[in-house]
């Protein structure tokens, strides 16, 4: 496995990240982490909301400093407490301290904001995150499941005020869910953010586990995508899971698929996707199987770019960066 730099930082992260939400017991977790590490993987992703799963991860990682451990905060610690959840300073401090205890460590490599909290000013969140970094309890920060405008504003504030900016973005991304291409992925490319792409197999729908003999299990759109993935996999001598993950990686070098597995065989299969390069023709067939449009403003801007009416007579003779 090769490594990428995390955002604009010098942190080296493997090209596939391992999600730990499906960890059930210590033996399973040790086997999965061992297989992942043997393949060169070094990023283990968890969250405060995973509860016992976060604690389980902390109990099985033997060489803590060898791994990049990432966790998230936002989701409620106590549903009866009005301040039990959210992106405000109080929840950040208490969630982080609980995560550190569960993970049996004095620092996390990456702390993700789990989801946008519209009631907390982004200035408060960014300052509190920067304080955690300055205290040495967090090394890098990222944001998950939030609007592009919010992430851009947060990093602009960080730049102006000398705070730690977000280095990563975590979003759902797969052949069946390409919404991130509208605003989030272009923003990540422009700001130099790494993109942890969760659900690259669309909850298993693209992994070949649901067969056509069970027509009620997939919608027509999902079935068309699954059939296209399976056909390409058969032609390339690969598995559907490898094709689905390889498709997400092809979009941009900044995309780092966040994969999960329940056993070593599943994980080994997915890890082999790093050796698969999809031909352009195969990519075109995969994308043609599932209708997707960027919509406004991307489609409108694309129409304007070559137009002499918009940019003058030299519109088609300008080379981009």
UniProtKB/TrEMBL annotation:
InterPro entries the UniProt entry points to: AKR, AKR_Detox_Biosynth, NAD(P)_OxRdtase_dom_sf, NADP_OxRdtase_dom
Record keywords: Oxidoreductase
Keyword Oxidoreductase in record: yes
Domain NADP-dependent oxidoreductase: 16-290
Signal peptide: none
Keyword Manganese included in the entry's annotation: no
GO cellular component, one term: cytosol
Molecular function as annotated in GO: oxidoreductase activity
Record's protein name: Oxidoreductase
Source organism of the structure: Actinokineospora fastidiosa
